[in-house]
Amino acid sequence: MVDDGGMRAAIEGMGQQLLEGDRIGGEAGGDLAMPTAVVIAGMGGSAMSGELLRALVIGDCAVPITRVRGFGVPSWAGPGTLVVCSSYSGDTAETLACADQAHGQGASLLCVGMGGALEQRARAWGEPFAQVPGGLHPRAALGYLFGAMAGAFAACGLSRAGIAGECAQGVAAVDRDAAAALGGRLATTIPLIYGSGPMAAVAYRWKTQLNENAKMHAFSHAFPELDHNEIVAWEGAPSGTFAAVLLRDRGERDETRRMIEATAELIGQDAVLVEQVEGRGDTAAARAFSMVAHGDWVSYHAALERGVNPTPVDRIGRLKQRIGE
Ligand code: F6R
C-alpha cells in the first residue's frame, strides 16, 4: 500500500501549519471589531477547526459562539455578529450559502480558506479573507485553518493570544509509536471514540479521520451525556465488533473523571478493547492538539493496516460532482 498523496507529510506538518495559520489569521483579523456573538460555518474538515477552537475558548469567551454545518445561519446573525466562514477549497455549497445569507443580513464576516468562490465573495464585499496555503486536502490543512481562526480571534479580543502556539507544542509531544500501535489494533473494529469537554471535539476529529483516512466506520460521543444513553447500547453489542477509545485530559472535572472510570469498567467485557489515551502538555490547548495529532496518526496507521491509501476521498468527490459543486 502506498501513501502517494502526502498524508504522512501533512500530519507531520501540523505544528508548522498552526504557527503559520496563526500569523495569517492575526493579520486578517486585525480590523475586526469585537462582536456581540459569533457563528462559525463550515463543513467536514473545514468545520473541524471551528469545532476545536470553540471548545477551547467557549468557557472564557465574553460572547456566545455557535456553529452551523449546513445551508444557513440563524436569522439573528446580523449587525454585530461575526460569521466565520471556513472552507479550505472555498467552493463548498453549504458554506457559500451561509456566507451569502450572513452578508445579506448585515453580519461581519471572516472568511478562511485557500481561495475559490469564498475568496471572490470576501474580496467583492470588502470582508477579511485569511488566505492559507493551498495544495492539501481540507482535513490535512487543519493546522492552517485552526491557526488562522485562533489568530483572528485573538486579534479582535475573542480569545487570548498564543493558543495556536500551545497547540503546536502539544502536536510535538505526540507519542507516534503508541498511535501507530493503536491504529493497527483498531483497523478491524468499529471504534467508538469518547471524550469530555474539548476532548469531545477531538473525539469527533478521530471519528472523521478514521472515516476518511482509513475508510472505516467510527463514531464519537461525549461524556457525561453518553452515560445517559449510549452506555446502554453496550449491553447489546455484538461480540468482537466495537472498540472503545477514551480520550482523557488531566483537566477533566472530578465528577466527569469518576464517570469515565466507571464507564470503562462497565463496558470492558463488551468491547474488543478499551483504550485510554491521555493528552500531553501543560495547557488544555496543548493536550487537545496532542490528541488531535495522536488521532491523525491512529487513522493513518489504521489505513496502512487495512491496505488503503489514506489520502483519496472518492465518495466525497463523486457526491460533489453529482450535485454540481
Ligand atoms: C476532505 C474533507 C472534507 C471537506 C468538506 C468541505 O479532506 O475533509 O470533509 O473538508 O467536503 O470542503 P471544504 O473543506 O473545501 O469546504
Topology, please?
Blueprint: H1 7-12, H2 14-28, E1 37-42, H3 44-57, E2 65-68, E3 81-86, H4 93-104, E4 108-113, H5 116-125, E5 129-131, H6 142-155, H7 163-172, H8 176-186, E6 190-196, H9 198-214, E7 219-223, H10 230-233, E8 242-248, H11 254-267, E9 274-278, H12 284-306, H13 314-322
Helix pairs in contact: 2-6, 2-7, 3-6, 3-9, 4-5, 7-12, 8-12, 9-12
Bound molecules: fructose -6-phosphate.
Fructose -6-phosphate binds at residues 43-46, 87-89, 92, 95, 137-139, 212, 313, 316.
Short structural summary:
With about 325 residues, the chain is an alpha/beta fold. The protein is built from 13 helices and nine strands. The strands form two sheets. The chain has a five-stranded parallel sheet, with helices on both faces. A four-stranded parallel sheet has the order 7-6-8-9.
Characterization of this structure:
- The chain is of the alpha/beta class and 325 residues long.
- It folds into 2 domains: 7-169, Glucose-6-phosphate isomerase like protein, domain 1 (Rossmann fold); 173-306, Glucose-6-phosphate isomerase like protein, domain 1 (Rossmann fold, 3-Layer(aba) Sandwich).
- Helices cover 49% and strands 15% of the residues.
- It is built from 13 helices and 9 strands.
- The strands form 2 sheets. It has a 5-stranded parallel β-sheet with strand order 2-1-3-4-5, sandwiched between helices.
- Helix 2 (14-28) runs parallel beside helix 6 and helix 7 (163-172) packs across helix 12.
- It is globular.
- 54% of the residues are buried.
- Bound molecules: fructose -6-phosphate.
- Fructose -6-phosphate is lined by residues 43-46, 87-89, 92, 95, 137-139, 212, 313, 316.
